[in-house]
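Write out the 3D structure for:
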Amino acid sequence: MNEFGSEFFAGNRERLRQLFTGTAPIVLTANGSLQKGSDEAYPFHQDRSFWYFTGVDEPDVLLVMDKDKEYLIVPDREAVRETFDGAVDFDALKNRSGVDKVYGEKEGWRHLTSRMRKVKNVATLAAPPRYVDFWGMYTNPARAELIHRLKQINGELELLDLRPHVGRLRMIKQEPEIAAIQKAIDITIATLQEIAKPGEFGTYEYEYEIEADLTRGFRRRGAAGHAFSPIVASGKRACTIHHFANDGKLAKNELLMFDVGAEYDHYCADISRTYSMSGKMSPRQQAVYSAVKEAQAYAFSLLKPGVLMKNYEKQVETFVGEKLRELGLIKTIKRETVRTYFPHATSHFLGLDAHDAGEYERPLEPGVVLAVEPGIYIADEAIGVRIEDNVLITETGIKILTESLPR
């Protein structure tokens, strides 16, 4: 772990300065901890962009970049909390981040307040909405709280949103990032190969038993755990794209679909494979599986520098439509008919998040890492097939980072 040195984070800060080009101070916040029970927080998950610029995994820390000055502000902790959770080591934060100055809350905010009263603009990452209707979830309030506090200091402050700049930086992976992603992939593959032996699923009775072995395999191979909530879905449950419950009873005549990935040093793998519980697919299952495999091969053939994701997605959608027609599922290839059986995008960026930051309107460039995951889901037939691999865009095409796991 901790394969990223302070030079990585310092380099990212410098790249942000060069891309931003403005003179306004940059102020970024870590995530805050979220309550789980009366006096217990959920396991802390750092804002990935904040980590990208600091390497810091503590909650509520601020990064201030102001011309040639930069410093961290660390919130005070109650004595009782320090007893239970430990104190923050300022020297460790300096060594990790490469930021030379680390202030406690009072001193740090005194510096920041003085500066905010003199400027017209401050650059930060815009706060997400408090509640995201599409996903049915509340968001971390840290960014909104930072903006609120800055506005209290200077009500005339205009905010400059850094999200496009940060998305552009995170979209192109550096060598240490690619190495971390590859390590996460290798751990995932080794664990899947240990568990998913054709015809040997008989030792499992429920999906959650497989999930437990995935967790064990990831952790003992050096991963922090799962990069996202794992999906182990058999039969009709595989037609629920995000089947996180993993509570179904397994049956020999069904297909079993994995959508899983280990997290290594904050970077993610994201791999899907579909297996026969019995070791032999029925003719219909095999036909659907072959159609998805052909769709993925077609997607691979399209990917290279200069490709626009929007055009790529349309081409794959049309190809899957042809396969759905061959399978007798649709008569005409239209978006609404295809999306009945293929309801998600083919690809997304991969990195610090499984669905990573990036600019989908920007042509692909060398250094981009993508997941490629076509699927066909036929709920009436209890068949759900998804095949997902992770690829690196190269100067001439792609390198399949997950090539060692058979499809």
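The domain at 6-168 is CATH 3.40.350.10 (Creatine Amidinohydrolase; Chain A, domain 1).
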